[in-house]
UniProtKB/TrEMBL annotation:
It catalyses: ATP + protein L-histidine = ADP + protein N-phospho-L-histidine. This is histidine kinase. The keyword Transcription regulation does not apply. GO terms for molecular function: phosphorelay sensor kinase activity. The chain crosses the membrane at residues 146-169. SUPFAM superfamilies: ATPase domain of HSP90 chaperone/DNA topoisomerase II/histidine kinase (SSF55874), Homodimeric domain of signal transducing histidine kinase (SSF47384). It is found in: Membrane. It is an enzyme of class 2 (transferase). It comes from Litoreibacter arenae DSM 19593. Residues 240-449 form the Histidine kinase domain. Its EC number is 2.7.13.3. It holds the Pfam family HATPase_c.
Amino acid sequence: MLTIIFVMIAEVLIFVPSVARFRQDYLLARLEKSQIASLSVLASQNQNISSTLAQELLDNAGVYNVVLRRDAASQLVLSSPVPGPITTMVDLRDPSPWYLIAGALMQLFDPPEGVIRVIGSPTQAAGTLIEVAMPQAPLRSAMIDYGLRVLALSAFISIISAALLFLAVRRFMVKPIKRVVTSMEAYAKAPEDARRVIVPKSSITELRAAEDTLAELQTRLTGSLKQKEHLAQLGGAVAKISHDLRNILTTATLLADRMERSDDPAVQRSAPKLVNSLSRAVNLCEGTLAFGRVDEAPPKLAMTQVQEIVDDVLQSEQLSAPDGIRFECDVPPHMMVRCDSEQLHRILGNLVRNARQALETTGEAGVIKVSGTEDANGWHLTVSDTGPGLPPKARENLFTAFEGGVRKGGTGLGLAIASELARGHGGALTLVRSDEQGTEFQLFLPKENALFEDAAE
């Protein structure tokens, strides 16, 4: 329908000048016939012809009279009674296109009764001017008949064009789009089936780009679903392992409690740390079981002295660190943070452990530093190292499990867990910098008032 409408609009724009051209040709034909009739009369020696012949010449030319100007003199060559006054005058001596178009439009809307006076230039230099009077009805009728023929032809062309365009659009656009929709519906029924990923085939650039994008999206989604399925299976296995490991660690904790009663000073110094480590391991197993049930316990927020947690983390990592790696704590002694102490220990432990492992890969000396500051909005804990920095792949998927691993064989779970625990506090874990000078992470924990204000807003 749109094609038909557009073609008809184009035909209307063509119709008006074509009707004006038809009217001009019609009038010029009458002038030419009138000129031939007048020359026939002038060719007779005595210029006396019968009234019957004169009327026949006028009827053949389709005019009432003919005036021919030759040698600076005008002469009424042929004449018959004019049925009425002159209603329209047309001058065909060098007319402009707008003059012809305006005259044609007026001719179509003028009443059929009336007489037209037409002035033109004779052909073959047979005079300087020729003027005729002719009826308006035959011209108007011929113009309407010509317009109807043009309209019928335009309608026919419009229908043919619309049919061809419809078939072309259906072949090159509608069918490929339906194919994409069908592929999406089939893929939605079984997104894990890689065979249902669309195969781009369209020859149209835009549709081919859409198919390529859809294929890439479906491929990624299928891979993610497979990964999540594997993670679900792995989670079930980890839950079983954590359950049994928790029982083993509970037994080890009881044995460690007995070690505290030993008279050996070294054992007495190490036993509390061993007990704390075993307690955290038990809590981690319990947390893993809760995570497997998608039931991670919310943090138990309380004002906690941060320096004790930082010292405990650094001392634990110091036992595993080779010589040359130095640990520094730049946290104010009396700095109190509103947090879950156990979860904060896990966050800092993951960050410091990653920093230690990064420095171990270089085989060189380095420094791991934990610092803390406080402002009106919250607390900022920074963990920095002088290691080699994170590789580009690790930075792209830094807090994504199984994709943000830094070292070979790493799973990337540490940072993912740390980031999730930070969000549970209403805070955020961000990468401040990572280059050849080292890496720096910052943990932000909001103050209680800030949390309430955000909730109120």
